[in-house]
Write a structure and sequence with these properties.
The chain is α/β, with parallel strands linked by helices. It folds into two domains: 270 residues, Zn peptidases (Aminopeptidase); 110 residues, Alpha-Beta Plaits. 35% of the residues lie in helices and 26% in strands. It contains ten helices and 16 strands. The strands form four sheets. The chain has an eight-stranded mixed β-sheet with strand order 1-2-4-3-5-16-6-15, with helices on both faces. The chain has a four-stranded antiparallel β-sheet with strand order 10-12-8-13, covered by helices on one side. Helix 8 packs across helix 10. The longest helix has 22 residues. The protein starts with a helix and ends with a helix.
Amino acid sequence: MIAKIKQLAESIFDEILSIRRHLHKTPELSFKEHKTSAYIKSVLITWDIHFTEDIADTGIIVLLKGNNPSSKTIALRADFDALPIFEENEVDYCSENNGVMHACGHDAHTASMLGTIKILNTLKKEWEGSMKFIFQPAEEMLPGGAQQMIKEGVLESPKVDKMFGQHVFPDLEVGKVGFRPGKYMASTDELHITIKGKGGHAALPENYNSPLLAAAKLITALDEFSKKEKDRPCVLAIGLIEGLGSTNVIPEKVNIKGTLRALNEDFRMKTHEKMLVIASSIAETYSLTIDFDIRKGYPCLVNDEEVTKKSISFAKEYIGAENVIDLPIRMTAEDFSYYSQKVPSCFYRLGTANKSKGITHGLHTSRFNIDESSLKVGMGLMAYLAIKN
């Protein structure tokens, strides 16, 4: 079976490469992926693959049936939205949509899964059960597309037994993959804070109540609180502070934005409460108002121990034990976590770097790219994991 899958991956590589490059040239932002969705459907129509459309607006589901289709259902997921980044790569498939870029590899995710569909459709008399392929919009922007697809029944009819997600990883050389059983990625919450005081002429302190002082105190207090929690991995970081005053102008309000990342849901909720208490105390001390808006994002991503350990074993069979890496915990987040809450799941990483070619730039950067030969491993390994699990 391994030999058959690898041969098929090799034979369709040029077509999958072309698909990836088309997607890379025509990126669309979260919740706006109408042309991307239409293109995916056009590929499936060309291949005579039936699909269900308009799930979470632009999402697509493909269901393939093998032998004994009711015996199990394995789901695979690929996201297809892009990021608001100006691409600086000098390649002939560079983004044609200025300010929008596939800087997180979702073009590769989608192309790989299309390749997996083609492989499994060719081999459908040689595997058991049903395979459900979920093409998901809006992973990059809260509230995310996964939650909506679940609400619209993507994990039902037929009911999904196990689920897999594959994500490109520029920290790994092409040809390698990485796994981590159990907790792998953090929850993410957005912090949107507005502090309102009284503005005025900087030379007349008796006439104003500066929100900047309260902002400085709040940022410091939040940082001190987060550093006390060394035994529980968390990140509480402020990325924006905006107080539109001047050398002699005290602004009326200050806007602050930040993020909270945590690896424990109980601790996450307690931290929400503690941040509000800190803000309330500072507002009282400085006699002003603090609107502290916590916008709950994705939960922690937890890989099922049994499914992931089995998948590690299968990956070693497929590409060799020396090419399967143990991953550390990451404080980044993923809305695949919503699926992992509902179904035993495994979210793993596909190596895409090639130092000899200078392909080393990180995710969410203007020069991110992949060694495209990783698509062969991507589509082949997904097919093998789906068959073996």
